[in-house]
């Protein structure tokens, strides 16, 4: 007797209601923040390419702080080492939630987004390395084209007015979360210098104390804020990029709600800091990181020098190849069935959108190329590569917007006005199958 065929799980189907509500809330904040981020990047570019560029550089390079504590930072470094710590703290909370209650909680659901994200990091890095090696350039920037900027990507979706289904947006969000983890590991391992064992010991002691306070269910910002700032300062002086402290604290925060709690500590912290991260911290970083010269010579260097060319190719071509191929092969390997309302062309468009690597790519570019001239060319490459990826994604996704609009309307139809979309109250085998969400 022949064995019964394995059932095929649904990929990019309708998300479970609670997960959908959490994703929609997170994406709303990211979209608004992304629009502010776009505005900040435009201001930086215009400011740096006008006669007032000297003022821009003077403000960016102005130093302040407490030198006796090893905290004499420029405004630019304050945004990259300080404000971006808040961004990575929120990213750490999002990753913890994904690991505990989200798409990464089981190997079956995690397989597709994790494999897609890993391929979406490995292929751009390999493409950069091949380009740099062929042109006799530096291999030090291999990590620059690896990251996806979810806020910038969502801002592009808002600008081009696509009604991308929640499942596709959630898949993009999960890719970005895994990307952020990869980026912070790369920063921690490959971009450390002049390690100070005593400061690092103090930083790890602070993280242990943070963990103990969480385990003992201690509440009150007056405990955590001073401890967080002290841990951040010690990490900065320890020679490890200070943003590592942010993601570590985010991973420590509890993201499950206990009896009697309206929200978990992670959810409360994310609710408080996410608007600041998306609307203030990341845009300010962009304001002082994206101000590069776009003269004819600088633009020419982007396509003639191996390092910036490798960044552009990694973002525009490497991301698409990595994410699409990784997703397709993982789906075949795990026997996942693509949502019949969608097509692999939708995944291809999403992969193009993931080539927008603005914020973290700029940060890693600063760390990989401290020399001002090369750093400027690499930053220009990040900007150009991100714009090219965004343009390509817009063309691909707009072609399918009629399908997306229909799915969007089905997802949000609530004729009985009970606050629950009608699609979640349907019965029958079709609905049961669609409830699987993003399975791997």
Helix content: 55-70%
For the biggest sheet, the summary is: 2 strands, parallel
Mean pLDDT: 86
**Secondary-structure element order, N to C:** EHHEEHHHHHHHHHHEHHHHH
What's the shape? globular
Strand content: under 5%
CATH topological fold name of the domain at 10-73 and 105-180 and 284-413: Na+/H+ antiporter like fold
**Gyration radius, in Å:** 22 Å
CATH homologous superfamily grouping of the domain at 10-73 and 105-180 and 284-413 = Na+/H+ antiporter like domain
Question: What CATH first level of the domain at 10-73 and 105-180 and 284-413 would be assigned?
Answer: Mainly Alpha
- Low-confidence parts, pLDDT < 50 over ≥5 residues? 1-7, 427-440
Assigned CATH architecture of the domain at 10-73 and 105-180 and 284-413: Up-down Bundle
The total beta strand count reads 4
Number of helices: 17
- Which strand order does the major sheet show? 1-4
The class by helix and strand makeup works out as mainly alpha
């Amino acid at each position: 007797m022949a064995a019964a065929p394995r059932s095929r799980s649904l990929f990019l189907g309708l998300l479970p209601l609670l997960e959908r509500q959490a994703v929609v809330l997170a994406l709303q904040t990211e979209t608004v923040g992304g629009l502010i981020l776009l505005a900040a990047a435009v201001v930086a570019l215009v400011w740096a390419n006008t006669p007032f560029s000297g003022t821009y550089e003077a403000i960016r390079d102005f130093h302040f702080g407490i030198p006796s504590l090893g905290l004499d930072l420029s405004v630019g470094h304050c945004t990259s080492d300080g404000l971006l710590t808040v961004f990575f703290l929120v990213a750490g909370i999002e990753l913890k939630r994904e690991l505990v209650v989200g798409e990464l909680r089981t190997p079956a659901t995690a397989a597709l987004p994790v494999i897609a994200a890993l391929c979406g990091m490995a292929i751009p890095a390999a493409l950069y390395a091949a380009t740099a090696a062929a042109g006799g350039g530096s291999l030090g920037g291999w990590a620059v084209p690896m990251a996806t900027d979810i806020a910038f990507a969502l801002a592009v979706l808002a600008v081009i007015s696509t009604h991308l289904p929640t499942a596709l947006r959630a898949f993009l969000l999960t890719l970005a979360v895994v990307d952020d983890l990869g980026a912070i590991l790369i920063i921690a391992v490959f971009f450390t210098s002049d390690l100070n064992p005593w400061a690092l010991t103090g930083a790890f002691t602070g993280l242990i104390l943070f963990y103990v306070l969480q385990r003992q269910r201690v509440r009150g910002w007056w405990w955590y804020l001073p401890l967080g700032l002290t841990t951040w300062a010690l990490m900065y002086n320890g020679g490890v990029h200070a943003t590592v402290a942010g993601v570590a604290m985010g991973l420590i925060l509890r993201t499950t709600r206990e009896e009697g709690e309206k929200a978990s500590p992670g959810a409360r912290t994310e609710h408080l800091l996410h608007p600041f991260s998306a609307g203030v911290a990341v845009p300010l970083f962009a304001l002082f990181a994206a101000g590069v010269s776009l003269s004819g010579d600088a633009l020419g260097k982007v396509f003639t020098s191996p390092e910036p060319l490798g960044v552009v190719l990694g973002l525009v071509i490497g991301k698409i190849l990595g994410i699409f191929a990784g997703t397709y092969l993982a789906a075949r390997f795990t026997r996942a069935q693509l949502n019949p309302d969608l097509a692999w062309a939708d995944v291809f468009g999403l992969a193009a959108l993931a080539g927008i690597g603005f914020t973290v790519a700029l940060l890693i570019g600063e760390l990989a190329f401290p020399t001002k001239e090369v750093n400027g060319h690499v930053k220009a490459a990040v900007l150009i590569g991100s714009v090219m990826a965004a343009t390509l994604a817009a063309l691909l996704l707009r072609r399918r917007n009629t399908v997306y609009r229909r799915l969007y309307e089905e997802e949000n139809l609530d004729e009985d006005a009970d606050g629950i979309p009608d699609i979640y109250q349907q019965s029958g085998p079709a609905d049961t199958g669609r409830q699987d969400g993003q399975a791997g």
